[in-house]
Each structure stands twice: as structure tokens, then as C-alpha cells.
Amino acid sequence: MNLLVMAAVSAVSPSQWTHYAHFGSVADIVSSGGSVVCATTGGVAFGTIGEAGLTAWDSVWTYPGELSHSNCRCLAAEPDGSIWVGTWGGGIDLFRPGSGFTHFGQLEGLPISQQINAILPDTSVFAATTQGLAIMEYAYFQTWTGLSTGGGLTSDIVKCLAPSDSGLFVGTEAGISHLGAGLYPGSPSSWTRYPEMDGKKLREFAWCSDTLWAAADDGLYFLPSGSGTWERDASFPFDEALCLASDGTDLAAGSGWLANVREGGVWTSRTVKGGQDVKAIAFGPGGLVCAGVSNELDADDSGAGIGVRWNDFYVLSAPSGIPSCTIHSVTLADDGTCWVTTENMGAGVLMDGSWVSYLSVLPGEHQVFTSESQPGGSVFISPYAYGVAWLDNSGTRDTSDDTVIDLNIGNSGLLSDRIRAIDRAPTGETWFGQTQVAPGEAAGVTRLDWTPGETSSASWVSWTASDGLPAGAVQAVFGLPGGSAWVGTATGLALVGPAVGQVSAVMDASDGLPDDEVTALALARTGRLFVGTAFGLGVVEPGALTAGEVEGVDGAVTALVEDNTGSVWAATDEALYRILPGGGLEEYNTLNCPLLSTVMHDLACDRDAGLLYIGTDHGMWRVDLGEGLGGDGGGAVIYPNPFMPGEGEVLGVAGLPDAPTTIRVFDLTGALVYEFASPDRDGIAWDGTDSGGEPASSGVYLVQVVQDGCDALTGLALVR
Fold it and tell me: Which partner from 48, 164, 222, 415 sits 20 to 30 angstroms from 482, CA to CA?
């Protein structure tokens, strides 16, 4: 036996956290000459306005990298080229040419939320936060609230700031206050309040000539020069103003889908994009108006970028990025191509390093909760309440040759158009978990067997509560070979199929699950079924009809997946957990890894490449697990290791292509103990017996893994 002996492989800590962010939801714009700088939900984007009015995107600042958080809300530029960036949860980042980045957070005195609405670098640096007015002197912020100012501030939620010769205007969620120049903020006498503005939600200030203007939730207001009373602009054509900008002579305001410009005292309005609110506005070169938009349903989630007015219409553009911040599902094609679905911007696919978005081709583009890849690279995408769309993009970025088939209760065997879970079984069947809104609505789980794209070949079979499901509302499904599936419902777990109407097992909290409500499922290579619930993670051993609980996994489980090493990852509303094959537990949270929040909706793993994908409310993360396929077989991983056979435990192999595979187990004398060949990677298993069926004794063994182009040996400890 002339083979290279490799060290035993064990799980290592994830590395290379790659963040895919969305740059289309624009919260602030700074314009200078022909350049624009935009604060977006994915970072800071830099663009150039060309002769045709289009914005050519030059570069971005992102997190991780230059910024402390991806969701940027405000900008301030200084004459020396310095740029202040206020984020929504990460404090403030300052870039100075020649000096790089400086971060200001809790240690520098900012409030604990670190949510910044506006920044004003003046004689001091002022920051409008959701927990008061922060004022920096000598590199440290002191934060003032309604309480500490003796009622001088109208609210602790500070939205906008404006400097004046007489001091500082502060707009809040409940009105406007003025802090006198050079006066101590902690004294009520330092502040002036404007009773006529009390209770109004302020959005933004802008000076135009000698007049200060204020955008508010109930209209547009101005403070005439020399006056102490705010007046409503009766000529403004709308009931709400979202943002303001001035070039010194003219005024621009965003309201709903419209950008409004006041020239010579007269307002004109232009639509920027339907369904997108103008949340940021600025004047560009030659009087051009730049309008940043955000989805009107959720400004933090998605948007179409920035529009530049050109010849009385707006041309929109956005830097390349993920379709939306909130990623509801992640699914991987057999070749590793990554598809995502989103909250408010349809679906997207990552191809050649950039994203292609799919909106109008889907029956709906909001609340696209789930998806699942199909053989050949096609994918099922399900907008909630619209059934499911089968999409084949032919493996190209060109969308003109795409094929889309819409399936719903009117033209298929689906029970309901409200699909919350999809899974493709190893033998090719696709399972659809359907929920119900009102009692009596049809719901359950449906199995589809077809040749992808050929509706005439489709065979549909369904199971409902009348067949024995614990409930009709199905929230998770895991397809098994041969037409069976584990089904998670709102009130328990069931094993259905393969026969029509067959429900062979039902479990709930009385059988050991942490909770009745089942939210996620994953069947590990060892045959252990991991069951995510609304209050913890359960596990069902092979052949068992009762469950146990995985200790240490806290919170509501939202997603489960097995990685290339045999570890199972569990996303909860408290942390991301990794359950190691040997029983160890790792926890990843916002304190010990780059994740921005623990709002995680889905997980997927490319086991050949050793990549974990995490769909969150702050975009998608791709994590290198450090144990992917190597060209010399170095990526071969056997698990669990140590191996403790018994109670259904079997040895598996991961980190290899899904191709014909042979394993050979040798003792340290070189004698062959066991040999097994499988037509695919997942069929490989060893139960700890020798070729004669007798239990192999405890000790160290060598396991040879053989594939075409791969021949590797790794150590294994067997413990009885």
C-alpha cells in the first residue's frame, strides 16, 4: 500500500466572510461638480454624471472593509475632501484624504443604538441620533436628550440639523428646537422651541437664500428671514415632504414617487419611479436634480438607486449588488450557482461575480419566501400567495431567452398558492409546503414528479390534515429518496408517503421536541433528523419515534443545513450555531463574527466548495469553511471523527464531487478491513463492521478515498 498518509481532518473556524450588499436604497446624496456620493443600504457609492445623464459608478465603500456597518443613512463632506458617514447601527465613520478611516462608536460617546440620521461638521461636530443630539469636542461625543436639556429638545429622536449664525436648528420626531450659539446645551434657557411645529415629524432642513426650509410629515415649512415663526408653504403641491436640497437659488423636495423643483417660486413635479419613494435629493451640475429612491414598502430593504433628471425625465441607475437587503431564501444549483429571493425585489442569481435580478417575469415580486433549484440549473421561485414560478435562465446573464412557467391552484395540483417551503429530494421529486391564512383553507404538502419544464409530465400528490398531518399549515419539508418526506407543521412533525395518504409517524412536544411548531428540517448524512422549532432545536435518531433536544441552541430556529464536514448549522433569532459531528457546539453572533444581526432567514451549503451561504436582513454572507474540495483530494473529509458506531451511526465522506466513490478501511498493519463502492458521494457509508460483518475493534484506522483524479488517505479513530 504505497499511499500518502494524511492527518485526520477536523472542523476549523470559518474564514473569509464575504458580504453581498444592496446599494439601491439611497438615503442621502452629496453632489460636487459632476460627481455624486450616495449613502445606501449597502455602503457608500461613488458615481459620475455623464453627458447622457446616466450615472457611471466608480467605486463603493462597504462593510466589512472601509465601513463599520453596511446600512448608511447620512453623509457630510468637508472642503478638504473629508467625508463623514453616519450608519444605522454602526456609529460614524470619517474618511480623511491621506489619513484613511476613523471610527466613532460607543467608546467615543455615541449612544448605544449607534443609529445616525444626520451629521454636521461645524465648529463642533453635531450628530443627530435616535437617542439624542450628540456633540463632539476633543474627539469625544456627549449626547443630550430631552431630559438632560430640561425639555429644550422636543424629542430624543433627532432627524435633521441646520447651522445658522445664531446657533443650531434641531429637527426631531416631535418638532423643532434651536440651540443658541455658544450656549450650554444642558440649560433650558439655551434652547428656543417653536410651538407651531410641536408634534410634527421633521425630515430634513435646507437653506435657500436667507430662508430656512423644513420637510415634515404633513407638508413643507419655512422660516422667513428675521421671523420667529414657521409658516407652511401653501404652494407645495403635496401633503408630505420626505427630503430637501437647495443650490442657493432653487429648492428641490422629494414627495412619494415625485421629485419637485421650485424655480422662481413655482413648483414643478416629475415622476422618478413608481413604487419608489424619493428619500434623498440633491442638485447636480448645470441644475440637474439627483433623486435617490427607496422602496415605499420598506426603505431599509430595497430600492432602484439614483435617478438623474434629463430632458424632463429621470434615468435611474444603481451599482451592481444583491437585489435587496432582506434575503428570504438561498438555493444552490448543482454547479454551485447561487439563487436568492427577497422581501421586495423579486429574486436574483449570482453569475460571473455579479447579480442578475428577476422582477417582472415573476407572478409577484414581494415576499418571495422560498426557492429550490432543479436539475439542469432551473429553479422554483415562490412569491407568497402567487403559487410558484419555474424559471430557466439557460445559464446566461441574457434574460431575453429565459423560460418561465407559472404554476398555481388553477393550473396544477397545488393545494394552495401560499407556499412557505420547497425541497428537492435526492431522487428528483420536488416537495411544496403550503400554509393557510383562514381556517378551512386548503393547505398541506404536495409532491411533484416531472421532467423540469414539461408540464405534461407532471404528477401531483398531496397530503393534508385529513390524511393525518398534525396541521394543514406546513412550514418545512425535507424530501427523502423514493417519495417520502419529513414535514414540519405549525403543530408537529410528520413522515409522509410514499403512498397516497400515508402518514407513518407523527411527533410533537409530548414526544420530546422542544416545541410543537416546526420551522426547519435537515437530515444529516448520519441519518439523524434535526428539527428546528419555535423554541429550540430537536433531534430524532435514525428509526426513533421520539426526539431529544440539542442543548445550547437557544431561540427560534429559522434554518438548518449540513455542511461539507458533517456539521449541522442552525440559524436562530439569537445566534448562528454549528453542531459538530462529534457533538461539540460553536456559536457565532454579532460579537464574535462579522454578522450585523441575528435576523437570518435561510442557510445553504456548497459542500463541494466548502462554502456556507447565510441569507439575512442585511444582505447575504458567504463563509469559507476552509475545507472545500482540493484538486489532489485534500478536501476529502470523513465524519464523524472520532467515530463511535452503534445506534445507527455511520461514517460518511464529504468535501468531494458528487461522483462514483470508493472507500477502503485499513488497520495499522495495512490489512483491508472494509471496502465499499457507491455511484455517488452521498451513498458512501460505514457502520463500523469488517468485511465479515463483525464489529471492528477500537483503535486507529486509515481510510482511503478514491475517485477519478482523487486518491487520498486520512486517519480515523474508532471508539467503542
Answer: 415
pLDDT score, position 676: 87
Separation between Cα atoms, residue 287 and residue 649, nearest integer Å = 72
pTM: 0.86
Q: Where in the chain is the domain with CATH 2.130.10.10?
A: 327-624
Q: Which of 366, 217, 203, 346 is nearest to 298 (CA)?
A: 366
**DSSP state at residue 88:** B
- Dump pLDDT digits (tens) for 666-705: 888 888 999 988 887 777 788 888 888 888 988 888 888 8
Which tens digit of pLDDT belongs to each residue from 280-297?
999 988 888 999 999 988
What is the per-residue pLDDT across 67-81, written as a single tens digit (0 to 9) for each?
999 999 999 999 999
Q: Alpha-carbon dihedral of residues 684, 686, 687, 692, nearest 10 degrees?
A: 120
The helix (H) or strand (E) run that includes residue 338 is: strand 338-342
Integer Cα distance of 198 and 189 in angstroms = 18
Q: Is the pLDDT of residue 713 over 80?
A: no
The CATH 2.60.40.4070 domain(s) of the chain lie at 641-718
Whole-angstrom distance, CA of residue 651 vs CA of residue 684: 8
Q: What percent of the chain has pLDDT over 70?
A: 95
Class of domain 641-718: mainly beta
**SS3 of residue 407 by DSSP:** strand
Q: Which CATH superfamily is domain 327-624 in?
A: YVTN repeat-like/Quinoprotein amine dehydrogenase (2.130.10.10)
> 3-state SS of 649-689?
ECEEEECCCCCCEEEEEECCCCCEEEEEEECCHHHCCECCE
Averaged pLDDT for residues 393-414: 90
Q: By three-state DSSP, how is residue 697 classified?
A: coil
Report the C-alpha gap between 13 and 626 in whole angstroms. Answer: 8
pLDDT at 363: 92
Note the pLDDT of residue 14. Answer: 78
- Let me know the angle formed at the C-alpha of 690 by 687 and 691, rounded to the nearest 5 degrees: 115
Up-side HSE of residue 698: CA atoms within 13 Å toward CB? 5
Sequence letter at residue 391: L
